[in-house]
Amino acid sequence: MRKKPDGRSIEHEILRWYRTNRRDLPWRGTKDPYRIWVSEVMLQQTTVPAVLPYYKKWLRLFPDVGALANAPLDNVLKAWEGLGYYARARNLHQAAKVICREHGGRVPDAYETLIGLPGFGPYITAAVLSIAHGLPFPVIDANVRRVMMRLFGLRGRLGVRVDRQLLERLGSIIPARRPGDFNQALMDLGALVCRPRNPGCLSCPVQMRCLAFKRGEQEVIPAPAERDFKRIETVVGIINRGKRYLIQRRPDGGLLGGLWEFPGGKREKGETLRDALRREIREELGAEVINERRLLKVRHAYTSFRVTLHAFECELAGPPKLGRTRHRWTSLKDMKRYPFPSGSAKIVHFLEETERKREGRGGG
Questions:
Q1: What is 230-363's CATH topology?
Q2: String of b and e for 209-241 (b: at least 16 CB within 10 Å)?
Q3: Distance between CA 193 and CA 99 in Å, rounded?
Q4: What is the distance between the alpha carbons of residues 132 and 30, in angstroms, rounded to a whole number?
Q5: What pLDDT digit, counting tens, does each position of 22-60 carry?
Q6: Domain at 10-141+163-192, CATH class
Q7: 168 is a catalytic site residue
Q8: Which of 13, 40, 81, 292 is an active site residue?
Q9: What angle do CA 130, 132, 137 make, to 5 degrees?
Q10: What's the alpha-carbon Rg for the chain, to the nearest Å?
Q11: Residue 138, Cβ neighbours under 10 Å: how many?
């Protein structure tokens, strides 16, 4: 345990800073493992401001493990709509079912048991055990990683080797008392002071212990990640029958599994957008497209790729071949019941605005 000349340790300084600077968040101040679990899953790959309204709504809909386990998957995915990375919601749902079936509705407090549940990797497991049960398991998220790499002057690109070093360092300083507060203090320190750019070193409680600060390297630690985004173009058909639109459900496995979308798919190399639309609708619905008209283009970003979505209003030359559980004819009003990926949700919003303007003109 490293101490300052006056005898105070790194963890003591960080916890003292946390007492007066901690963020006021709705999952703080509870020891309920379910609520802590939900908050940590939502916070993965998502910012705190984006999570806050989802967290409050989620607890209204699913106040405990049993309520989540008994909810239909579509309801769970709909409550998650807009947060992205939908596998997180499916894992929450599946884990809740296992907890109710095998553990009497009580979130386990043993590491080996907890990490075996769907979606419980090392980070979520350590967060729940340390915050809810006061067990000294260190956590590593983006904020903690940045604080620790700067504090100990660890260079190199992010990866398994660096995280292994960080876990060893954290294991040597995490306190036996209040380990959950210590983990959250590191998260807050990274979010509020030890920021990715323009870190507030002058207000850092461990500034004089920070090797990156001493060396003037805080702006280059951690090294920026190298990112090469794949760019994808997709086409979808907006097919309506009166005021009802055709939507379809994606397969449960894979990206965006279980969500709803408009029929269509990826544009292949060398295809025009219209050729891609005709091929996709033919393959998916067994029908030929006629009278297609460009409607709008939307863009959406995912972790490793960028999607441009081209929507066409179109008609079919004959009746489509529909699956009983995969396809639905639904009104714009009823689409609110279905979970859509963010790109498709933008199309729904466009259709709602178009219908609203049309009705406004008709009423004038």
A1: Nucleoside Triphosphate Pyrophosphohydrolase (3.90.79)
A2: bbebbeeeebeebbeeeeeeeeeebbbbbbbee
A3: 38
A4: 8
A5: 999 999 989 999 999 999 999 988 889 999 999 999 999
A6: mainly alpha
A7: no
A8: 40
A9: 10
A10: 25
A11: 24
